[in-house]
Each structure stands twice: as structure tokens, then as C-alpha cells.
Predict the 3D structure of the following.
Amino acid sequence: MEVKRTGKRFFQLLWLYAKMDLSWLLRDTFFALLAMAADVVGTVSAISGIFLLSWRFGGIGGLNQNQVLFMLGYATVVSGLFQLFFTGNNTGHFSRRIGRGQVEHMWIQPLSLPMQLLTEGFLPFTASSNLFSGGLIFLIAINQLSLTITFLWVLRLLVSLLISLMTIVAISYLTSALAFYSPVQAEEISTYVLDSLRHLRNFPLNEMPKAIQFTLLSFIPAGLIAWFPAMDLLGQTTLGFTAGFPAICCVIFSLLAVYFTRKGLNYYVQRGSNRYLPHGHRR
């Protein structure tokens, strides 16, 4: 019964934030459309350089141009999902809320912290442009590669997207924990870390030395976000790892994020923050 109530509350909150997002879109439609168009232009610009190089030379790193496009489309869809669910109220960049002393806003709400963080960032109207543009690129690549699409393949795709999304969120919260101890210096740390991963994830790593591949699949897990899952969906193995390797890494990063976030919250309760900014919140 408790699980049922929690699930019902979860979808009620998603519906609430969706209506709020639609209200913002309708209130200032021109500005909202400009922001969405800017997202699309920025995303296409970020991936166009690699794709044009692959087109000019017939591929990059052992992948032909259509396989590169497939990987870039996958990366863009993952980015779109992150923006869709974790853009609002800095839920995807928790170090900002910590560094600005806004965690107290969450403690006085009649909801658990996980429930707030899983719902507050939902922006299905104004943050969906990258998801649609990435989906279009992905479908074009699938058509060009003449892939055989089965129910099992679609299921693997959905699971891979979920794992990639959870990996990004886990890394963001893991690094955000530093803001509990150094709110000024680490306020934007999650932004810098995710931006670095976003730039690195677009590169095919097939012909890279194995040491670099392993590094980008572990300590700097940019390869886990798009390259490894894309290769798995295309039926190519990487470093002898099984298809479950991203899931294992995701669980590890998630456990570390939960552990260090809890430690940081305990420290925050004792010390508080001398920085209090009302950005995005009411006093």
C-alpha cells in the first residue's frame, strides 16, 4: 500500500511540474521557443564536427560514418533525457543548490529528498528539443545501417538509455557532494564535470589504446555514456567486456553517490552554509 501511494504521488508531482512547464511556455512562448531552438543548434554544433570528419574520411576509429551517426544520435538522446528529467530547479546539478545554501528549502517540504529530486526537474515541454532532435538523428542512422529491429533489441535500447542516464546522474551527485564541504569553490563542479563528459562522449574510441579505453570506461566514464552502449547495440564487443558492464559501473557510481551525499548531508546539518541565494526559490 505504501509503494502504491508513493507511486501515485510520484506521477501526481510529474503532472504538476508538467503543467507548470506548459504554463511557462504559453506565458512567454517566443522566448521559450528561442531557448529550445538554441538547445538544438548547440547540440547539432557539438556533434557536427565529428560527423563531418567521419563523412569526409569515410569513418573514424574503425567506424563508418553511419555507425558514427548512430553513436552521436544515441549520445544526443541520452542528453535529451537528462534535460527532460533533471533540468528544472538544478536537480541535475545538485552542487548549485548545495553551494547556494538552498538545501533547507527541501527539508521543510512535506516530501522526501529523493521524491523532490526525481520530480522537480521534469520539463516535458521546454526541455524536450534535444530528445526529439537526437531521436531523429538516431532513426536516420538506424535506417542507413539497415538494422534489424526486434522487440528484444528495442528492450536492450531502452535499458541502455536508462543505464546511461542513471550513470550521468550518479556522477553528478557524486561530485556534487564536494559542495557540502566547499560551497564556494564547488558550487559549479557538477556542471564542469558533466560538460567534460559531454565533450568526451562523442568520440569513437575503437582505435584508441586499451589503456585509454579502460580509463574512459572507469575513472572518467565518458565511454559508458554513448560509445560502449552504441557498440553493444551494433553487436561489437569492447575490451572483452560483456553487455552488463555499464550496469555494473552504474551501480557502483550510484552507491558511491548515495554514500557520499549522505555523509555530506550529515556534515551540512552540523555546519550549515554561509551562502544563501534565492535563485529559483522563494525565501
Q: What stands out?
A: The CA atoms of residues 160 and 229 lie 6 Å apart. The first helix runs from residue 2 to 27.
